[in-house]
UniProtKB/TrEMBL annotation:
Pfam families assigned to the protein according to its UniProt record, in alphabetical order: Aminotran_5 (PF00266)
PANTHER family referenced in this protein's UniProt entry, alphabetically: ALANINE--GLYOXYLATE AMINOTRANSFERASE 1, AMINOTRANSFERASE CLASS V
Keywords attached to this entry: Aminotransferase, Pyridoxal phosphate, Transferase
Positions of the Aminotransferase class V domain: 31-326
Cofactors demanded by this protein: pyridoxal 5'-phosphate
UniProt-recorded name of the protein: Alanine-glyoxylate transaminase / serine-glyoxylate transaminase / serine-pyruvate transaminase
Cited Gene3D superfamilies: Aspartate Aminotransferase, domain 1, Type I PLP-dependent aspartate aminotransferase-like (Major domain)
Species whose genome carries this gene: Myxococcus fulvus
Amino acid sequence: MIPGPVEFEEEVLRALGAPSLSHTDPAFIVTFGRALQRLREVCLAPSAQPFVVSGSGTLAMEMAVANLVEPGDAALVVNTGYFSDRMAKILERHGAKVTHVRASPGDAPTVEEVKARLERGGFKVMTVTHVDTSTGVLAPVEGLVKAARALGVLSVVDGVCATAGEVFHQDAWGADVYLTASQKAVGVPPGLALVTASPQAMAAWKGRKAPVASVYSDWAEWLPIMEAYAGGKPSYFATPPVNLVSALDVSLGQILAEGMEARFSRHQRLARAFRAAWSALGLRLLPVSEAVTANTLSAVYYPEGVDASLVGRVKAEGVVIAGGLHPDLKTRYFRVGHMNRVGPGDVLVTVGAVERALLAAGHRAEAGAGLRAAESVLAAR
Ligand SMILES: *Cc1c(COP(=O)(O)O)cnc(C)c1O
């Protein structure tokens, strides 16, 4: 129950453990082509160009920046924590002049603040972390990307802890790059960088003057490969991770079978159950309001008198959760991921384990209070 890698479905793991086909095998060509199409559907981005590349989420971030940003371009970072700082670092390395709009840890800048900044002009790109995994903060991403689109600024949305878990309509909202990694809500073991780029993003890349500063990230290398597989032909630039791509195809198929709206609302319902439990146990969340609270993970302060040893106590109760990550608050909170195949049973097992660990650590709460609160949300349909 950590915010990635998450637990994976049997069928996904079987695809990963199957014998590796040649990347030119007709069966693999079909699989890769279908996975690319399914990625578009999961991002609700029928007009986007998908890229599926060996790497982690950080490579997906770098790929977006390397292809869109030229030295001297101005970039606005909507900063909600650790992964927004990472995006800024990547932007700066690629020569961008970075401006931050920050909120205090646990909060997100408002659409109005960001819009006012963008209106002063000069920005080529705006980056947003959909869910900041360090704080559990959900950015007001719909309003942000719509504002950027209205002002002709390219938007890059880091969906690594959100894609296929949090509501996102890439085409309808006009987001230019949505990026993620395989191991979070997409439900595939670590190893894939996933990017969907709008026609506007592709046009900005085509119109650039400076060459892309990384061969491995360059869309000029990858676009012909993605187009070939989508068209039923093999092509080679760098060996595709055939087993991971097969596993991705299986997982995306399962996600689409559940349905995007059903999947988004399942994540919301489970997150509500967790929130009810934390509150019944007298715990406080990092996110400062419900509006900025993610549905894919919980970030929860340790109560008075309880420290980071709680994570080990919860593990002894049979559930793996994560400690803090935000540099300013690291030792003061824990994180519980609730993505992908998580169901009501996982909520109850996890809340039960945290509750027992808290009581053992000396926290005063009524045994069963968290479980009852979670169950009352789960039972109300
Ligand atoms: C996990 C995560 C990343 C980094 O992904 P890696 O696969 O670890 O490189 C980036 N952004 C967000 C929001 C994340 O949650």
